[in-house]
Design a protein that fits this description.
This protein is an alpha+beta fold. The protein has one domain. It is about 20% helix and about 45% strand. It has three helices and ten strands. The strands form two sheets. It has a six-stranded mixed sheet with strand order 5-6-2-1-8-9. It has a four-stranded antiparallel sheet with strand order 4-3-7-10. β5 and β6 form a beta hairpin. The longest helix has 14 residues. The protein is globular, with a radius of gyration of 19 Å. The termini are far apart.
Length: about 160
Amino acid sequence: MRYFILVVGFFLLTGFAHKFYVSIMEVTHNAENASLEIAVKLFTDDLEAALEAGTTTKLWVGDPDREAPETDSLLANYFERRLTIEVDGETQKATLLGKELEADVTWCYLEINDVPTVSKINISNLLLTELFDEQKNIVHVYVGDEEKSVLLQRGKGSGELSF
């Protein structure tokens, strides 16, 4: 009986120990400032893997004692290559404002200025899809009193929302 419980316990612990590949992005239109405020939540180890691809440097994202000096520029470049936002037919440029760690995730903050209104937004979010086939990127967009969401992934990396 004890052997049976150990075997079942082993399969329960290892059989369901599958990594969860997901990011959450919140885009909020700030009408008062005529801007889009963007917050992206990513697992830190996945973000490090994406930023370190093609380099020999360990970045230690968010570690105040060990973070590599080039981390923020690599992060800004990564967002520029993997995230595109088009508002009312015009491609917008997002500026990386900063990042902060929260347990095993990193929040990245970006902003797009000179966006007085939003009636249609097209978002291409390819974050981490180059590394993980199972990567899901959930995008929530808030404009005025409306909230709309879209699920993006490899093969369907962009979505359009109308307000």
